[in-house]
Specification:
Strand content: under 5%
Number of strands: 0
Shape: globular
Largest sheet: none
Helix content: 55-70%
Radius of gyration: 14 Å
Structural class: mainly alpha
Number of helices: 7
Distance between the termini: 25 Å
Length: 151
């Protein structure tokens, strides 16, 4: 499955506060997706299964979308030599600095750091066996959840 196609499909299932707010300076949507990714990484660490991989991909996809970046851009970034969990935990630390050092504004420097860490996490998930099937299954699961109001 094409990654931008995946991003466009799952974006249709996104329902959360601040969605698409980055253009207007609202970072609550990005905050939601990054916090979700941190929680998702914990769930993935606890129970590594295809559904959790799909959930983590959703958060990565939505975070890049919120940052006005196509998901395929992550393929082009040379990842750090971190494990998946290390990358996501470092992402939390870098994102904390948006509030502590940058007056709640995502600077271009901070955005590059965030994207590099997302790329590192993304590259790990891409190496999961059956990755394309996981993406397709994730789309079906998310569509069904949205249809029945399962969030």
């Amino acid at each position: 499955m094409d990654l931008n196609e995946y991003q466009n499909e799952v974006r249709q299932t996104a329902v959360y506060p601040g969605r698409n707010g980055f253009r207007n300076g609202d970072i609550s949507g990005i905050t939601y997706t990054i916090l979700g990714l941190i929680g998702g990484a914990g769930e993935l660490l606890y129970s590594f299964n295809e559904s959790e991989v799909g959930d983590n991909m959703w958060y990565i996809s939505q975070t890049t979308w919120e940052l006005l970046t196509p998901l395929t851009y992550l393929e082009q970034i040379k990842p750090y030599d971190y494990s998946y969990t290390e990358a996501v935990l470092m992402l939390g630390n870098v994102y904390k600095n948006v509030f502590g050092d940058d007056n709640s504004i995502i600077t271009s420097k901070r955005k590059k750091e965030i994207l590099k860490l997302l790329s590192t996490a993304f590259h790990h998930l891409m190496n999961t066996p059956n990755f394309e099937k996981i993406l397709v299954d994730n789309i079906y699961k998310l569509r069904e959840q949205k249809r029945v109001g399962g969030w």
